Amino acid sequence: MTGAVVFPYNPAQDWPDADLSVLDGPQIPPPPFPVAVLGDWWGRWCQTAAKGATAPVDYTATGLLAIAGTLIGNARVVAASPDWHEPPIIWAMLLGAPSAGKSPALDPLARILDAFEAESALTFADTSRRHAAEVEAAKVRREAWAVSVKTAAKDGLPPPVLPMDAEEPPAPARPRVRLSDTTLEAAADLSAGNAKGLLLLRDELAGWWRGFNRYGGDGERQFWLQSYGARSYVVDRKKAAGPVTVERLAVSVLGGVQPDVLAEMLAGEADGFAARFLYAYPEPVRGFSLASAGVDRDGAEAALARLRRLALVDDGEGTGRPFVCNLEADAAAVFERWWCERRNDASEATGLWGGWLGKQGGHALRLALILEHLWWCVSDDGEGSPRTVGARAMNAAIGLIEGWAGPMAKRAFGASAASAEEGDTAALARWLRRRGLRAFNARDARRSVDGPGGRLATSAAMTAACRGLEDAALIRRTGGRAGGGSGRNRLDYAVNPALLEAKP
After folding, report:
1. 420-501 adopts what CATH topology?
2. Full-model pTM
3. What CATH number should be reported for the domain whose range is 27-120+173-417?
């Protein structure tokens, strides 16, 4: 029978100077999301939704920006100059563990999109019936034309031209907000029939990312790159009569990614794909409390419906075009001054960060356009939507990039470049601090940090993490053999009091 092992507690003066930077791991600490940029109404709404999901507000707020941009869609663009236009398309990646609350944080917004599509389905049924009647009428006219052709042939006359109304009208496109089938042809077909654009909303984006170029070549990746810029795109189909032409291919992207998977996704990144994303990588919410209030679903749905009703401008050709929202003079001055400085920074930066920084001029314009419309859709301004983008929106967008999006991108790229051992060491240090443990057994801890099957569940991972904390003078080995007899050494460690006293 083995005797109990008493862990000695060593006062702080018995320890060498500790390296507390280990607590931050390979990433920089996440900045708080500045909910004030959303305006009072949307700021409160996002905070309520996030609390109900026990999730960081970053996830809900980022989702709101991407979804609002989708609903505005091709109805609006912002113009920095006569030849520089940006659509309100946002690609957003929510980074966090499977239990971080990414999907629950988006659920209130996703349910509103479901309601929009259900409403569209009702009107589409009537549209389909009218189309069926038009098809039958076209068949009757075609039969009459065929008779006239036979008559002309008998009389030795030239055959009459097929009347335009004798051709079957194309099938109506089902109105959609969200895109589920990401194969190139399906996405092109759906985009061609939904002129304002679509949203790709996924719990996990890794499968979509890995599926690029499944048929060889780079056609799919190029398709998605074009969709970010709302540019025209033509898809040649093997089994169809002709190609699919999308005048303004616009698809926003929103979904989650686990931090451990991000490194694999970004490996070999060379075409600026990753530079187009906003990254939300907050710390998970600790603890749990039941929400005392729910979100204002009706208010949010009514507000977002105003964005959904924004229409393309009639161009006389049946396709429509976006209304151009120019920068007001003071907004243009703010943007020009800021982008002059940041563009120089981007030219000197390298790697993923350099690529991301180089896209922020466009991001600032897009965010300013979206914020202008988010503020408007909860205002009392009637149906008069914004015609310009002002300095308030531009300053808010720049502040969002400088104070939140930029640090979050650095944090995400740092996580993708960090070794697993660095992340494991930080995870163990934070677990010890959170539990307030003065001593621990590494073998027991393997079952507790992140639960069974977690990142430190294997002996190799725990050993490496302990070695990292020993090197940082945050723990030291204390255990001998249990009961003083023969056998394996116990993996007992004492914890430096400096770790327990460090502020989160």
Report:
1. Arc Repressor Mutant, subunit A (1.10.10)
2. 0.77
3. 3.40.50
